[in-house]
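As a warm-up, study this chain.
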Amino acid sequence: MGAASRQYDSHIVDPLHVADAEIVYIGSTSDADLWRKINPRVKHLGCTFEKAFCRLARHLAGYKQRTGGSRYRHILDVLRAWFVYYAA
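Now compare it with the structure written out below.
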């Protein structure tokens, strides 16, 4: 589930402008470009979840490590979630 990149959707766009969090996007390159026009901090990870999964896992693990959490523990959590997702 996601949101389209429409400048007039201020209820979506405005909070992203002031957010301290890193903003990542998984979807088409053209849609990512539209998001970056609205907010240059948007980072495109890939066109599909499966293609972007490894980059997303590394990105989240790096974020967890930068904020004082265990990178190793996060990677284990992501791998467990991945296994549950594909086992279902």
